[in-house]
Amino acid sequence: MPISGLYLVTDRGLCGTRPLExxxxxxxxxxxxxxxxxxxxxxxxFFLEEAGRLKKLLSDYGVPLIINDRLDVALTVExxxxxxxxxxxxxxxxxxxxxxxxxxxxxxxxxxxxxxxRDMDVDYxxxxxxxxxxxxxxxxxSWGLEGLARIxxxxxxxxxxxxxxxxxxxxxxxLAGADSIAVVSAICAAPDPLKASRDLAGIIGSAxxxxxx
Amino acid sequence: MPISGLYLVTDRGLCGTRPLExxxxxxxxxxxxxxxxxxxxxxxxFFLEEAGRLKKLLSDYGVPLIINDRLDVALTVExxxxxxxxxxxxxxxxxxxxxxxxxxxxxxxxxxxxxxxRDMDVDYxxxxxxxxxxxxxxxxxSWGLEGLARIxxxxxxxxxxxxxxxxxxxxxxxLAGADSIAVVSAICAAPDPLKASRDLAGIIGSAxxxxxx
Lengths: 213, 213
What we know:
The structure is a homodimer.
Chain A lengths: L4 E5 L10 H11 L3 E4 L6 H18 L3 E4 L2 H7 L3 E4 L6 H8 L4 E6 L2 H7 L6 E4 L16 H11 L4 E4 L7 H6 L4 E4 L1 H4 L4 H20 L1
């Protein structure tokens, strides 16, 4: 299925005292259509166990589990896909290991990245970041809505917009060309992740309908 | 081929200003029979590129390349094997992904680890640490030569001893039961890694001959 709608990228730190699974479940109940598990600085064993728990939870909802960067984790838990950045495994190597059915997303942080990705059969481009964000600081500047629109005009690949997106700008990002809106803090750090997800999913759904009307 | 002899575990930090490849080449010229690439806190891309370079270098010497923990890296560069610790991927999952021909080593840090490993077809046990060492601090105490001898009496698996080993105690470790002596700083931090490796390989070779005589 093509990537579309509300895409949650996890951040355990932002969940505070709430278990990650509880926040993910709230996001799913609120209408998230894709979840990416992102972990840094944990052991492989911890990452695997967490991924295994999420895999089980997500399959109850029929929502794909995407693993950030770590193909060893994705292969072991039989996740639906991986998301790779420009410092992660090259796309071709990731496809070779994951096989033809896996969802593979690729972050684009520069126009050169976008051009190189044009002829790849990636499942989506992660346009990162749209706006500056404290949850990811190793980027090369932000695309803005103009950059997003420029990529939309250039490629037919599904676009997942990420970086500084929330209920106040999700509609604009969809209208600029995003098929999916990825959020981290707008759900993980929300006082009420269920409500936050429901609101976002509603805004994104309406905007997608408006765009295709 | 069974693991035996001088086993280098890399530590880029300890190599100082010398490129890792230069130190590894010196170790190979000095008689190392196995090299494990261990990296933490680097990007997957960096790890892959470095592993690819070492793979090429080691194949010229006919020496196996073992990747620490990261099966995604090992699979992509077609390394000869992986080394997993108790916080890394479980052995069975690693075997499933790596296939029957891969070398898989498993660290044992407690007697329970040794008992659990008894019926696994791991290629070697990494007995870790023999002595306290500043290059690895997340362990559960040290085995000592007595602990090594106790494991030797318990299992037929090849034993790679690691932790605080150098030219002054390598012979004793072999006589206590190690088939292979793994070193980090004794080569990576040596003023002359070629000489250090040659000395160590000589000591280990003589001790293995003495033991089997």
